[in-house]
């Protein structure tokens, strides 16, 4: 079985939760007193779950990691669950479980059933308490095998039978004619690859981006186009990304173009 890469958000024993923001791990929130993550918690890049975010994974190991750490893992099963948001909306929010390929202590673990029942019960209760503190209801509906977990991952991959092409048009020069810092593009690249697992970049230098600044002058702006493929449009993600791009590149408008595709 090919290893699945998991990005750690919150390491074992920590009292905070992080999120990918601006190309790095950004502190998202602090957990209430007495509540810590029992094991490393992260996500599988390039997937999307029932809640619109990448699939969540709890990584069980003896290894001490950190936020942003990428680990090649063996998937061992999952927890089927429904989450009720504060507004009453219900969504599927399954949790997957994995073991690092390099783990020695848990090297023999292949399925969730190989773990003590009490340990799994405690993990379920953690998820219930964690969501309760956030004003949500987490309802476990049963556990499933490693093979079913892998099927869920394959089904949730954003590049699985893509039907949409999304193009993001980003300027090369500022309004004063200066090149934007390289880190801006690096951050954008990381945001997109973290979400979609890959992207295509190309430039339109000679012909696009003409408009009149005032009655006496016309400006020309070179453009970099970021292209990704997806099976559906995550409006929450693109809305947040556009807001970030407008602020970062100091633009009045950033164009995001969506077109349908089909395979032959």
Task: Describe the fold and architecture.
With 264 residues, the protein is α+β, with helices and mostly antiparallel strands. The protein has two domains: 4-156, Alpha-Beta Complex (Inorganic Pyrophosphatase), CATH 3.90.80.10; 164-260, Alpha-Beta Plaits (2-Layer Sandwich). Helix content is 22%, strand content 36%. The chain has helices spanning 117-133, 146-156, 182-196, 235-248, and strands at residues 4-10, 16-21, 24-30, 40-43, 56-59, 70-84, 90-92, 95-100, 137-144, 164-171, 200-204, 210-214, 217-220, 223-230, 256-260. It has a five-stranded mixed barrel. The protein has a four-stranded antiparallel β-sheet with strand order 11-14-10-15, with helices on one face. The longest helix has 17 residues, at 117-133. The protein starts with a strand and ends with a strand.
Which consecutive residue ranges, at least 5 long each, have pLDDT under 50? 206-213, 215-219
Quaternary class: single chain
Largest sheet: 5 strands, mixed, barrel
CATH topology description of the largest domain: Inorganic Pyrophosphatase
Helix content: 10-25%
Arithmetic mean of pLDDT:
85
Radius of gyration: 21 Å
CATH class of the largest domain: Alpha Beta
- The amount of beta strand, in percent, is 35-45%
User: Which geometry do the CA atoms define?
Assistant: globular
Given helix and strand content, the structural type is alpha+beta
Number of strands: 15
What is the end-to-end distance? 29 Å
Domain module count: 2
Strand order of the largest sheet: 1-4-5-8-6
